[in-house]
Amino acid sequence: MEIFRAVFINISTNKFRVFLTSLGIIVGSLTIILVVGIGKGSQAAVAEQFGRLNVTTIMVMGQKGQKGQRAQNATEVLDFTDVETIKSQAPSVNDVTIMINGYADVKYYNISESASVVGVMENYLNLNNLTLKEGQFLTDYDSERRNRVAVIGSDVADLLFGEEGDVVGSMISIKGRKFEVIGVLKYLGDSTPKFNLDEAILLPYEVAEKYVLGKNIKPLINAFAQDVDHVASAMDEITEVLKSNHKGKKDAFMVIDIGSRLEVAQESARTMSTLLIAIASIVLVVGGIGIMNVLLVSVKERTKEIGILKAIGARRRDILLQFLLESIIISVSGGLIGIFISFLVMPLMKYFDLRVIPSLYGNILALVFSIVTGTFFGYYPASKAAALKPIDALRYE
Predict the structure, then answer these.
(1) How far apart are the first and last CA of the chain?
(2) What pLDDT is recorded for position 389?
(3) Which residues, in sequence order, are CB contacts of 181 under 8 Å at separation 6+?
(4) Predicted model pTM
């Protein structure tokens, strides 16, 4: 109790110096909590981005050729022949759909905006686990008959129609041509690789190609394996089909499974979180050096006090414990203040377009780092104080 009393008396008589000393710990612990929160936010965003696309999804897209190839052979184009051949010659594939996407100006009365336009087939709705808020989805008949109909994302509906109730049946203008809105997608969030369906307008494939996007847009094929165990064989079968359909251009396409992309994206998010935590730890180390520096000064200032304590019976262990406790209390206080400030700062991060998810793990990690920092950097000054000889300490000027 006397040791604790002595520690708190010394801290209370040097409040401002102790506060400045703990600033490094406060900033370091706050940084660790925010970094962990941002890392978890990034991982959650990755999971949401791929959440709708199940692990059996396989993406097929054209890729540019190597340097030295002729310009006309640089990029191969996928088409309906590839879709039909994959359906018939790839037994591991359950279903296939083709799509194109680009941007175009959309207008409703005096409201005009640039939006993502996606040309899709009828099976796009079920294969991508989409849900309609109202109306109906596009059909292959719409594509064959070149019907100018559209299904719009929830954000597009809010932007163009606001609080209006009658969205379905309304006419919008896309690239100067009139289209009837026949459906509105339920809100998804930013959960589609390459584009956000909430901010998109879906058109029948051939309508989008003929009237809006043109034939220069490169299509993308989504194939779906029968199950997870058939993904590898489905990719091999698709590759063989493409080699057969596009002779002499075996490297013209990329065949990627969503599962591997998700794993790579999650690993990148984890690596970035680890890197940021390491950087935050450096801040704590700097704060720890500040604690050690202040305690060394304190040992010098209190040399006579140490000599008196030893003269009246204080043991080496008592002196060591007193200075070590002072260091730990300063660092723990800084860690707790950093945790408290994090609760105030996290809600503000949304204004910087950063997603932060609070976690108990981040708070515990910051507190543990603070304790370790205080103990490690406080031990040397404490041991130096404990090693002073009483006679030398009493003579110190």
Answers:
(1) 30
(2) 78
(3) 135, 149, 150, 151, 152, 167, 168, 169, 170, 171, 172
(4) 0.57
